[in-house]
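Figure S7 source data.
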Amino acid sequence: METVAGMNTTTTSSSSSTTPDWTISTFSLSEWRKTRDSTQLLELCHGVGFFYVTDHGIPNEFFDKHFQLVRDFFRLPDSSKALIEKRKSRHFRGWERVGAELTNNRVDHREQVDLSEEHEPYAIDIEPHYLRLDGPNQWLPDEVLPHFKEGMRDFLGRLRSVASELLSAIAEGFGLPSDFFNDIFGTRPLNYMKLIHYPPTPEGEAGVNPHKDAGFISLLVQDGMAASGLQALAPDGRWLEVNPPQGAIAVNIGEILQAMSGNYLIACVHRVVAKQQRFSSAYFHGPDLRTAIVPIDIPQRLRDAVAASPRHSAAKFMSTRQELLEGKDTIGSSSAQTYGEQIWNYLVRSYPDSVRYHYPDYIE
Ligand SMILES: O=C(O)CCC(=O)C(=O)O
Ligand SMILES: [Fe+2]
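Tokens for the predicted 2-oxoglutaric acid complex:
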């Protein structure tokens, strides 16, 4: 069996045809630091669009402590968690109970806390309207949950560094300067994260329904090896179980990189169906909301590869709420023009009632 990045190619004796057998491969960040060779990384992001990053420098103990805090939070009574209820925040930060979120008009069976990098909010009537999403998080008082705020900020910072290094590696793979993507993050980058508690998923439902992520790339960690249920859609239409090796971080490409790379990199569709209770934290690496999503200059041979592959050339983006109401496929849209618009579309799709409450003039 010959192993190409992200793909095992087997030739069976009963047939002379070659059957690609898609897998999720590992990428060693410390190895890349030594070689600065990004070929494998680009292939992984062009293939499944999902991989495991190892040797990233964040020790296991850090994740263990993080998940102790996460479990402490979710163990609190609902009356305490409701102190930071997400519906109260016009920046869409805070806690939401199971069933509060929609993905593709289907309810997600999970409970979560949303946090972002924090900035002073803009004026309440700023235009474009999506800039109103930038602002503070909601935090529980320290006496309710000590050390939570520092712990979460620390986590956000650590994952941001790994994500930023991965973007350098991708930029170099395209023959661009190392800081190419990092330079467009601007003065108000909107990295955000979700702390998630999945109860066992009821039959016929999903912890989170199939979707592509907004932003550049997403980094996913989970508490406990056996408790996955995260699945990535392979190019052949099968769901691959995402089971990172101990200490590794699962990474997937977001819609910005798909759009900017002219679909050379693919934002992989994924979902969660949890067989047992699961805790995970997802970090979404995103720039300033004003960042324009414009195609970048990639080498001609990579453009040719997109043109030669219907899967790549026809790859789409998450449909807007309006498009879904009009009956469009769940992933049948073109790219948003800015990151702010991408995040706005996501919130309108997932939280129409909250958007109507905070921004009644901006949703039908
Ligand atoms: O829980 C996970 O591992 C993934 C969550 C996810 O895909 C998301 O929130 O976008
Ligand atoms: Fe996701």
